[in-house]
C-alpha cells in the first residue's frame, strides 16, 4: 500500500499571491449556469507563476528555454525533502551542506513558509551562496515552499545561475505535513507551450 501526499496549493480567489499584488490573484467566474443555459461552466484566469508552479528559464533569461522543453521525465521520480524549518531569512551553503546533496538529486526545501497560508514579504528563500552550492552539488531540480525561490535579489542571483546550469525550479509547494525523507515525486504542469512557466499539480508517494 502507498500514501499520496498532495503538496499543491489550491487555486482559489483567496489564495496568497506574490507580494499580494491584485493583478496576480486568480479570477474564477461562472460563464454559464442552469439559469442562463443548459450547462454549468466556469472560466479561470490564473498567473502562470501563481500557486504551485514550474518556472522555465525564459522567466529570468532573455534567451531562455520555454516551459514545453521541460519533459515529464524530468519531473517524475525520487526526491528528498530537507528539513530547513530552523532557517531564518535565507537558505545558505552552510544550511545545505549537512544534507550531503548528491549529483542528479531532486530536493524539496521545507521551511517555515509551509506553516503560514498568507504571503509573508520576509519569506524564506535561497541565498546566492546557497544556489551556488546546489549547482556545485549537481542537483537536477529544486522545489521550495514559497512563491519565489528568491526575494527579487539584484540581478536575480539565485534564479539565473540555477537556470544556466539546467536546474529545474518548482515554487509554491505546501510541505507542512511532509516529514523529511525520500519520496517518489510527481509534478505535472499544464501542457503549455512557448511561455515562461506553468501551474502544476504536485504530489509525493510514500509507503503507507
Written description of the protein model:
This protein is mainly β. It is 10% helix and 31% strand. It has 3 helices and 12 strands; from the N terminus they run ββββββαββαβαβββ. The strands form 3 sheets. Strands 4-10-9-7-5-11-12 form a 7-stranded mixed beta barrel. The longest helix is centred in the middle third of the chain and has 10 residues, at 128-137.
Work out the strand percent. 25-35%
- Amino-to-carboxy terminus distance: 6 Å
> How are the strands ordered across the major sheet?
4-10-9-7-5-11-12
Helix and strand sequence: EEEEEEHEEHEHEEE
Q: What is the quaternary state of this protein? A: single chain
Spans of at least 5 consecutive residues whose pLDDT stays below 50 are: none
Q: How many DSSP H or I helices?
A: 3
Instruction: Briefly note the structural class of the backbone.
Output: mainly beta
Q: Assign a percent range to the helix content.
A: under 10%
Summarize model confidence as the mean pLDDT.
Answer: 96
Task: Specify the biggest β-sheet.
Answer: 7 strands, mixed, barrel
Task: Count every beta strand, where a strand is a DSSP E run of 2 or more residues.
Answer: 12
Cα-based radius of gyration, to the nearest Å:
17 Å
**Outline type:** globular
